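Regression check, zinc ion case 429:
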Amino acid sequence: MIRLSLADPAFAARFDALVGARRESADDVSRDVAAILARVRDEGDAALIDLTGRFDRHDLDAGGWRIDPADCRAALDGLDRELRRALELAHARITAYHEKQRPADRDEVDAMGVRIGARWRPVDAAGLYVPGGRAAYPSSLLMNAVPARVAGVGRLAMVTPTPDGVVNPLVLAAAALVGIEEIWRVGGAQGVAALAYGTGRIAPVDVIVGPGNAWVAEAKRQLYGVVGIDMVAGPSEILVVADSGNDPDWIAADLLSQAEHDPTSQSILITDDAGFADRVAAAVDAQIPLLATAATARESWDRNGAIIVVPDLMAAVPLIDRLAAEHLELAVADPEPLFAAVRHAGSIFLGRHTPEAIGDYLGGPNHVLPTGRRARFASGLSVLDFMKRTSFLGCSPGALAALGPAAVALADAEGLPAHGRSVALRLDR
Ligand SMILES: NC(=O)c1ccc[n+]([C@@H]2O[C@H](COP(=O)([O-])OP(=O)(O)OC[C@H]3O[C@@H](n4cnc5c(N)ncnc54)[C@H](O)[C@@H]3O)[C@@H](O)[C@H]2O)c1
Ligand SMILES: N[C@H](CO)Cc1c[nH]c[nH+]1
Ligand SMILES: [Zn+2]
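Current build output:
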């Protein structure tokens, strides 16, 4: 963990280094991913067998390529009652939130008598990446599948790694709850490539969504254009802005909630009180050994963690915008002034009683969010990521008469006579 102070003359350079650090996509990750994508494109299922054996340590031919929907229904039926209620509450809240994202079509006649508009249609097939290397992510399954269902996508194909051949029952139960029937036991960059290019067994999709580690995120980035993607949702991040009125233990737990995802995750605290910063740092050290995920959390905190002390919390706003974190927690007495001022964050958590983990599971908004400072230009997964907009235009003879001469003039000016002629011929009638 590094400590920075805005009062330090070297602050600007040290903060630039923090913002510019390439945590998640080192050159070797890009190179390795490019090689994996090429293998899957050229060798198809044979590459999936080999790479799954190497990275997930099981044999697809022996253990099965797909998860049987009957196993998913059995997992849902066999779920502990409290866990089932929790899963259903999450599903209901995520569904209610995303149903309000359905876009409206436009169809109108403008002042010159021209019919103009746009209509939204779902993609035919979507690929859902559900991570599963270090932890199982039934919550990510819901976050991926619910907006796809709301959008009305015809085919949902899910890929997820099953390390050592072991499937997680809660992932299966979540699949049954949202009715996903096509689940492939492949993950990593090779799973993403299979969805993009298609293989002998797996038909290609039109769009791939979902979060994952550095290899998954880089695979989606490299495959954009072959398929659509939601955005680059890589190793988790949290930026907590906290005043000294917080319990340091609460804030330490919030920082660790994202550090425990991945060694390349990043947790940052910004506070206006150096003493409070010390107390949080001590609480982080005290809590790490209590976690089953201690090794990952420790590595993430040591390598990528940061504590920044500012003279007053409003001075943090430009820093928050530069960091453009996936998650921004405003753990202050009144979050409204900061909330109004901040421009770049994937998702914002307001006040001392909104730990980010609520958003991970069942707040309602999507937890698949842009990482690596990409909240400057990208947004969290939504219903729109599964849809595309087609514009349309209709001219009556009168509307064409009104617009045509200007179109002919512009076509002449561009030196494209066939364009002009296609209009002029109709005007002559
Ligand atoms: N940004 C978001 O919205 C969001 C949401 C949830 C989870 N996450 C992130 O998802 C990630 C989940 O990671 P995970 O590892 O548990 O599961 P994962 O499914 O993302 O990755 C596991 C796969 O990574 C591949 N892999 C591992 N080491 C490799 C190597 N050396 N070379 C090539 N491929 C390799 C393997 O194929 C393996 O199957 C975490 O980083 C977490 O922070 C992000
Ligand atoms: N924090 C993750 C998004 O970065 C989502 C998640 C799922 N489960 C727990 N957390
Ligand atoms: Zn999380």
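Comparison notes: The two ends are 76 Å apart (CA to CA). Residues 236, 257-258, 261, 360 surround zinc ion (ligand 3) (CB under 6 Å). No diff flagged against the previous build.
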